[in-house]
Amino acid sequence: MIVRGGSLSSLGLFVFLALEALPAQGPKALGAELKPATSEAFERYARATEARIDRELARPDAFLYTEGLPAPRRDAVRAMLKRGEVYMERLQMRDSSSKDMKAPDALIHHWLGAAFIPCVTLQQTLELVQDYDRHQDIYKPEVVRSKLVSRKGPDFKIFYRLRKKKVRTVTLNTDHEVHYTLLSAQRTVSRSYTTRIQQVSDADTPQEHEEPVGKDSGYLWRLYSYWRFEERDGGVYIECESISLTRDIPFGFGWLVKPFVMDIPEESLQMTMGSTRRALLANVSESCKQQAEGE
Length: 295
Fold this sequence. Notes:
The chain has helices at residues 16-20, 36-57, 71-82, 122-129, 135-138, 254-281, 286-294; strands at 2-4, 32-33, 87-93, 106-118, 143-152, 155-166, 168-182, 187-201, 209-210, 215-216, 222-232, 235-247. It contains 7 helices and 12 strands. The chain starts with a strand and ends with a helix. Helix content is 30%, strand content 36%. β6 and β7 form a beta hairpin. By secondary structure, it is of the alpha+beta class. The chain has one domain: 2-Layer Sandwich (Alpha-D-Glucose-1,6-Bisphosphate, Chain A, domain 4), CATH 3.30.530. Strands 1, 3, 4, 5, 6, 7, 8, 9, 11 and 12 form a 10-stranded antiparallel beta sheet that branches. A two-stranded antiparallel ribbon has the order 2-10.
């Protein structure tokens, strides 16, 4: 079961911003460890999400998540996307007992973003999102470095160096596996999974080194992304669900930090959707854009 949130996270990348706002403490004070039980709980959450997505994709007349919203809200979201805005929604999976699915000693952040890009095709959209070597330009400054490591048909292995600055600068080296599935000439889906996330200390200095996997500050331990692409209405609709895992808030700071932490994935995913839209529109003729805006 899923609970749909208000209208307010490849990439839901940086929940660690709020943790960086904590008062200065030694590294050990803010250190965290990813425990097996936490990792297993996140995987259960991801499997439940994927099962729900599979059910939605099997619907004959509603490919996109936003098409499953109640009629008045669905129409409002469609109008919002046509105006060039990015739609954001916080999601929460529930178990068979209708309880929120959680991870011990950690936070799971689940967001959906949607956008519409007029005057482009599905092929043009896929060419851009699969051009991983260019992502460091498209999604900067959060993506500092990007590289296509290998490709075998619809399967990609990629590397991102991610960076965010707020009070302090945090850098992460991350590996991802991405699989695309062509459903029809107008519809494609993809799933992206992090296979390695390592926090980088003393980045870009002679002392640069990676912290042990799962034994760091806990700013980002997992990041899974689920994309839908549909060519229709003279353009392409894109949707992305982002599920990320971070440490919980250190005891004593929850009242101050937790509300802020919960907002960070929205900002990061909104940046991703907005940057994708702008990059695709960069090669669209002004006359086409003006015509689309006038509809």
